[in-house]
């Protein structure tokens, strides 16, 4: 899985707003997270459209979480920015139809999506704000080779 800059910036923005605990201005967020302002503006608009953030205008305006950080998962943010977690050439894996001998690929892609869901749907923005990953996610970090690039 390749995490796009848009997803990385979106998560950093949502975590920053969650850590702030209230309404946060785009300029504060851009400076604090070192995100280009114009790029952040587009990302924030998508997060508002998806119901993750609430945006308000005016002198005291800015962005805040639309619901508690404990109810927003990493998967919610990824889907808001990039769409479904695991598609193959834009197709949901369960809808793929491979000829033999490649038929096993369909199951592989579904299993990959399930493993991604296990991490991304279990981890909330509150976990990230508190620097307290769920136990199952922490266990993955302790697996041999988890920190080695291959």
Architecture overview:
The chain is globular, with a radius of gyration of 18 Å. The protein has a single domain (5-141), classed as Winged helix-like DNA-binding domain superfamily/Winged helix DNA-binding domain (Arc Repressor Mutant, subunit A, Orthogonal Bundle), CATH 1.10.10. With 150 residues, it is mostly helical. The protein has a two-stranded antiparallel ribbon with strand order 1-2. It has helices spanning 5-20, 26-33, 37-49, 74-82, 104-120, 125-129, 135-141; strands at 53-56, 62-65. The two termini are 13 Å apart. The model has no long low-confidence stretch (mean pLDDT 93). It is built from seven helices and two strands. Helix content is 50%, strand content 5%. A hairpin with a 5-residue loop joins strand 1 (53-56) and strand 2 (62-65). The longest helix is centred in the last third of the chain and has 17 residues, at 104-120.
């Amino acid at each position: 899985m390749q995490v796009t800059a848009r997803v990385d910036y979106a998560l950093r923005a949502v975590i920053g707003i969650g850590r702030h605990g209230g309404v946060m201005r785009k300029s504060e967020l851009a400076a604090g997270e070192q995100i280009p302002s114009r790029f952040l503006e587009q990302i924030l608009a998508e997060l508002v459209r998806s119901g993750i953030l609430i945006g308000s205008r005016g002198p005291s305006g800015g962005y805040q979480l639309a619901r508690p950080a404990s109810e927003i998962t990493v998967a919610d943010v990824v889907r808001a920015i990039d769409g479904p977690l695991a598609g193959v050439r834009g197709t949901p894996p369960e809808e793929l139809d491979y000829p033999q001998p490649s038929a096993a690929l369909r199951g592989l892609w579904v299993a990959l999506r399930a493993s991604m869901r296990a991490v991304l749907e279990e981890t909330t923005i509150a976990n990230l704000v508190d620097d307290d990953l769920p136990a199952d996610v922490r266990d993955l970090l302790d697996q041999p080779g988890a920190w080695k690039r291959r």
